[in-house]
User: What shape does this take?
Amino acid sequence: MPTHNGLPQKSVQPSGVPNQTLYIKNLSDKLQKQDLRLSLYTLFSTYGPVLDVVALKSKNMRGQAHIVFRDVQASTQAMRALQSFEFFGKDMKIQYGKGKSDAIAKLDGTYRMPSTIVGQVTGTELQQSIFNAPPSSAPVGAPPHASLSQPPDMKANASTADGEEPHGVKRGRDEESDDEGAPMEEDDSDAPMEASSDED
Assistant: This one.
């Protein structure tokens, strides 16, 4: 009988077709979700690159997780090495996942968003007006911020009734005063610092 950590190990046959995704059950449900995901990632990443760890704390998925590896060889090696491994006081039961993981489908370009979600993804009117709007109407060759400047009629109304500029309005470069670049005078009253001695 094979042993793991000096304890006899039950021989569990892998079920399902070899897959990059491992389904793990009999996990401790006393851990928080982030701690569980991090611990599983740390444990399983020693056998190969882990693309995703899905551990939900819902009523139906409590004590279960899915680990997605980059290749089948790494997932097979991890499953063989960690089958019945005691993980936070419970022996893990590992088998191959039934289907292709979304992470793998996204990598190989075959990912399709579920139809129930596609119908639900609708933006607000503002989002649709922003994302469905035509590209900027700035002239070709103009700087990228040219279309973001204030319209001419807004610039004419930029001053208040008192003739002062309102607070919070940024001045253009051509409106800056020229005395900002005046050289500074040196002050000779500063005495040079004397070297101090630490030999007291």
DSSP finds six helices and eight strands in the chain. The CA atoms of residues 31 and 94 lie 19 Å apart.
